[in-house]
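Support request, please re-run this one:
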Amino acid sequence: MSNKKKVKFKDLIGSSQPVLVDFYATWCGPCKALSPVIKEVKAELGDSMKVLKVDIDKNKSVAHKYKIQSVPTLAIFQRGKMIWRESGMKTKSQLVKIARQHLEN
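Re-run finished. Output below.
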């Protein structure tokens, strides 16, 4: 049994630090292909931006609230608001560039 405390999504995205969220599903081929890219982006960005992966099948209420209808969908949140969103595959360089643009704001 896990004693891991369940953290609310709104608490994770509520900080002034931008948060890159990868909405994915375990059955989604492109999501699996994107996973190592997300890890590389996280490594490159370091502590400047948090990176979260959200399984839409295990977090249906979050997926519904943000109208996630296709996966992978990537979004950047800051202070609880979605400030960027796009569905589909992205390369590491595309994601790092997008993330850095939002870090400068």
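Helices lie at 9-12, 29-45, 60-65, 92-103. The chain has a mean pLDDT of 92.
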